[in-house]
Design brief:
Layout: H1 13-23, H2 30-40, H3 43-56, H4 66-78, E1 81-85, H5 93-96, E2 104-109, E3 118-123, H6 129-143, E4 148-151, H7 157-164, E5 170-173, H8 187-193, E6 198-201, H9 213-224, E7 227-231, H10 238-248, E8 252-256, H11 266-273, E9 277-278, H12 282-289, H13 347-356, E10 362-363, H14 364-371, H15 375-387, E11 391-394, E12 398-401
Parallel strand pairs: 3-4, 3-7, 4-5, 5-6, 7-8, 8-9
Antiparallel strand pairs: 1-2, 2-6, 10-12, 11-12
């Protein structure tokens, strides 16, 4: 099936600064951003209306100052970092098609790499020797067919996948800003990646990565790619979250089977039981990608406000400025600072959800209804349980508790 023509957006320097200023404002995440552009038609108009709109629903929104934004953009220019906005020709087509794509990407390196077919490779940070060998063989084999390997710059599988595809081009997605590489000892690798590939981030340049920023990064890793390859994912691995995002985004999930005696493979082997595609060689991936012409291309900013729904995205503290009855209530003190952590709801709500879960799969809709916890608050609890290795997912909408 042929993809529909990509939308073409051409922003002036001032308009680009408007976009950066709007997304850098507090409580404005991808969904709020899209809702504001739907309503007001431009980022400049949204910035002008934002204080009054927030006040009308009893919310406060701190708008990023223009001076701060211009300083960030000037600092980015000195490091040859470009800001690419959603809808511009350089914006990756596959990422544009996901739910809540980043409105602005800060890209350093070879921007042309973003137009190529991409395959994500993720896995254990404490990977085994066998896992690293497989990462090397698979990443090189996939890259030889012209695809770009995408990963998250973490230790272990991510590191090996990047290292093996430096000459063919690889893309690293950062959890923090470009000036806050995590882990710090991969700063040298970043410089090597830039020679043929690219490094991207949706965060401000000086942003130190926090808990929720790693799942945010993971959704971009999968969103950029037509397929995700998982090697050695433990039950408490962030790679499982990447695989879940991939599944929700309609991507093909490939999994390398591992020893049932190795805890590093428990999560990935579970993915195989849940229907992921077995992968033992690069051809398993490349042959599946061959018939794909590209992802469906949705309208960027649909006219109807009904399209705006913050209930399905737990990774941002977003102000619902269009429906006071459903405005999310957040507390910055609830945020966890360790990698992999997410904003948490009240202990009482988390307890009710956990008590309702058992070894038998239950749908998310039923769990939300029976617990009285809205979906926006339910999803962060489930992700916490998944990170702790206490939750199993059965397809997209069913979950059970590991007893």
């Amino acid at each position: 099936m042929m993809a529909s023509p990509a939308p073409r957006l051409h922003l002036s320097d001032s308009q680009r600064a408007d976009w950066v200023q709007l997304i850098r404002s507090d409580n404005v995440g991808p969904r709020t951003f899209r809702g504001l552009l739907n309503r007001y038609g431009s980022a400049a108009a949204a910035l002008e209306a934002l204080p009054g709109l927030a006040g009308s629903v009893g919310r406060s929104v701190r708008i990023a100052t223009r001076d701060d934004v211009l300083r960030e953009m000037e600092a980015a220019a000195r490091r040859a970092i470009s800001f690419i906005c959603l809808g511009e020709p350089e914006y990756p087509a596959a990422l544009r098609a996901i739910d809540a794509p980043p409105p602005v990407l800060a890209v350093r390196g070879n921007i042309k790499t973003l137009s190529r077919t991409m395959v994500a490779m993720v896995g254990a940070r404490n990977a085994s020797a066998a896992g690293l060998v497989l990462a090397e063989r698979l990443s090189r084999g996939i890259a030889e067919t012209g695809s770009v390997i995408v990963s998250g710059l973490a230790r272990g599988i991510d590191l090996r996948a990047h290292q093996c595809t430096l000459k063919t081009g690889t893309i690293a997605v950062l959890a923090g800003g470009h000036n806050r590489i995590y882990p710090e000892d991969h700063a040298g690798l970043v410089e090597q990646i830039l020679e043929e590939g690219a490094v991207i981030s949706e965060m401000p340049l000086e942003w130190e990565p926090r808990g929720r920023d790693f799942p945010r990064r993971n959704r971009i890793v999968s969103g950029l790619s037509l397929a995700v390859v998982v090697i050695e994912a433990a039950l408490n691995s962030g790679s499982l979250i990447t695989a879940r995002f991939a599944n929700e985004q309609g991507r093909e999930v490939f999994v390398v089977p591992g020893s049932p005696l190795d805890p590093r493979c428990e999560g990935s082997n579970n993915l195989l039981r849940q229907g992921a595609t077995l992968c033992t060689r690069a051809e398993d991936v490349t042959s599946a990608l061959a018939p794909l012409a590209g992802p469906p291309q949705p309208d960027l900013f649909r006219e109807s406000r009904d399209d705006y729904d913050s209930a399905t995205e737990p990774l941002w503290d977003e102000a619902n400025l269009f429906d006071q009855a459903h405005a999310p209530q957040t507390d910055p003190r609830q945020e966890m600072d360790e990698p992999g952590g997410l904003a948490m709801v009240s202990a009482d709500a988390a307890s009710r959800i956990t008590e309702l879960l058992g070894p038998s799969p239950v749908s998310l809709d039923d769990l939300s209804r029976l617990s009285g916890v809205p979906m926006a608050a339910l999803r962060p609890v489930l992700i916490e349980l998944e990170i702790e290795g206490r939750l199993l997912r059965h397809g997209v909408n069913l979950v059970s508790l590991v007893l």
